[in-house]
């Protein structure tokens, strides 16, 4: 099967990591995969380093009607069977190009901003309704419900296809080194990630006599504010802002608990990776998080923005190592059973193949050069 994967963004992030994992997973199954991107940069370099060919198409600002023709030409030229777009712009343009060419189309929603602005809500509702050879997917039940309700008119039958990540070949529940609790968070330093709450919860448990440290992996404009907050709370020496890292697994392997105080999440890859490294999760109960983490089974969930409840959960794990180890073991088991790249690839291949069986006009032949 010839599959084109596409996204409008080019920097590091969760949706981009999903696209990379899908490309590699599909290629491992023997499928012919290429990527269609809007610019060169981090993502194009990553894909090409893994042997995935990339095509760069320029998209002008506003509504670029000629882009549909350029994309349709790319679909014909490549001989694509499936065009899989990620996020709004490439899904909106992809829907039109696929209708013009007869290529199967899957559009995937990774976040609530897919229908954030009014213009997007209108455009999504009127133009992205599923039909025989195209479908819209979301990475969590919470996100699918949100997208369907926010679109004008409401979208029908948004399908849920959950993410997967590359899991370590070997992982086990680890004993804690010394008495301190090593906390790790992964997420860009943006307001929505609410890392300040994690620093406040750290200060709270330190004040209760718990020895703990926090490492935050990610980059963004909040760094100076977070450093200032750590100083104000007297925990600056216990907080490490490590920036963007390409060795996240090493940090996970050296930690005891994965934490998140985010205000909104879809299906965060960092949670899946942490569980695959046998880390229990302590996180705010938002978005798709409860679909990954069952409270008191894979981790502990707390109400969003509740510093006290967050600190209580951390203190429980600090003082009850048996609980930490039990949650870690369950998290590892769930990751291996549900959250691998292979499982995600299986789910998307089932969608591609179902669309192939739908009644539609034959796909046009590949254009001659």
What shape does the CA trace take?
Answer: elongated
Strand order of the largest sheet: 3-2-1-4-5-6-7
Average of the residue pLDDT scores: 93
**How helix-rich are the residues, as a percent range?**
40-55%
Assess the beta-strand content as a share of residues. 15-25%
Instruction: Output the helix-strand order.
Output: EHEHEHEHEHEHEEHEHEHEHEHEHHH
Instruction: Kindly report how far apart the N and C termini lie.
Output: 21 Å
Number of helices: 14
Label the structural class.
alpha/beta
Parts with pLDDT < 50 across at least 5 consecutive residues: 359-369
- Please tell me how large the radius of gyration is: 22 Å
Biggest sheet layout: 7 strands, parallel
Q: Care to count the β-strands?
A: 13
TL;DR of this structure?
α7 runs parallel beside α8 (223-232), α7 (195-207) crosses α12 and α12 (307-319) packs across α13. This protein is elongated. With 369 residues, it is α/β, with parallel strands linked by helices.
Mind explaining what this structure looks like?
- With 369 residues, the protein is an alpha/beta fold.
- Helices cover 43% and strands 17% of the residues.
- A 7-stranded parallel β-sheet has the order 3-2-1-4-5-6-7, sandwiched between helices.
- α7 runs parallel beside α8, α7 (195-207) crosses α12 and α12 (307-319) crosses α13.
Could you list some keywords that capture this structure?
369 residues; alpha/beta; 7-stranded parallel beta sheet; 6-stranded parallel beta sheet; 14 helices; 13 strands
Write the layout of secondary structure elements.
Elements: E1 2-7, H1 14-28, E2 32-37, H2 42-49, E3 54-56, H3 65-78, E4 82-86, H4 88-101, E5 104-109, H5 118-127, E6 134-138, H6 141-150, E7 159-160, E8 181-186, H7 195-207, E9 212-217, H8 223-232, E10 239-243, H9 248-253, E11 257-260, H10 269-276, E12 281-284, H11 289-292, E13 299-302, H12 307-319, H13 321-338, H14 341-356
Parallel strand pairs: 1-2, 1-4, 2-3, 4-5, 5-6, 6-7, 8-9, 8-11, 9-10, 11-12, 12-13
Helix pairs in contact: 1-14, 3-4, 7-8, 7-12, 10-13, 12-13
């Amino acid at each position: 099967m010839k599959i084109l994967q596409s996204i409008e963004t080019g920097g590091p992030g969760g949706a981009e990591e999903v696209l990379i994992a899908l490309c590699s997973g599909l290629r491992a199954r023997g499928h012919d995969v290429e990527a269609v991107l809007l610019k060169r940069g981090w993502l194009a370099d990553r894909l090409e380093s893994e042997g995935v060919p990339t095509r760069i198409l320029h998209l002008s600002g506003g509504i670029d009607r000629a882009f549909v023709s350029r994309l349709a030409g790319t679909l014909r030229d490549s001989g694509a069977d499936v065009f899989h777009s990620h996020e709004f712009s490439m899904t909106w343009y992809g829907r039109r190009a696929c209708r013009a060419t007869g290529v199967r189309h899957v559009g995937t929603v990774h976040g609530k901003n897919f229908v954030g602005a009014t213009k997007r809500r209108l455009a999504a509702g009127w133009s992205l309704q599923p039909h025989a050879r195209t479908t819209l997917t979301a990475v969590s039940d919470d996100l699918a419900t949100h997208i369907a309700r926010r679109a004008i008119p409401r979208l029908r039958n948004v399908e849920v296809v959950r993410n997967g990540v590359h899991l370590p070949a070997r992982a086990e529940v680890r004993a804690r080194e010394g008495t301190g609790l090593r906390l790790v968070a992964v997420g860009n330093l943006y307001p929505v990630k609410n890392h300040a709450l994690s620093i406040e919860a750290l200060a709270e448990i330190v004040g209760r006599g718990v020895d703990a440290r926090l490492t935050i992996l990610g980059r963004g404009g909040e760094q100076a504010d977070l450093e200032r907050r750590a100083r104000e709370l007297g925990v600056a020496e216990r907080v490490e802002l490590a920036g963007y890292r390409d060795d996240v697994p090493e940090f996970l392997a050296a930690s005891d608990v994965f934490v998140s105080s985010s205000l909104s999440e879809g299906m965060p890859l960092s949670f899946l990776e942490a569980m695959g490294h046998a880390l229990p999760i302590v996180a705010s109960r938002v978005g798709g998080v409860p679909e990954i983490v069952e409270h008191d089974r894979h981790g502990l969930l707390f109400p969003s923005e509740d510093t006290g409840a967050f600190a209580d959960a951390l203190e429980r794990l600090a003082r009850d190592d048996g609980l930490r180890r039990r949650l870690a073991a369950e998290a590892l088991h769930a990751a291996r059973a549900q959250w691998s790249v292979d499982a995600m690839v299986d789910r998307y291949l089932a969608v591609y193949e179902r669309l192939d069986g739908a009644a539609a006009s034959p796909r046009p032949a590949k254009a001659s050069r």
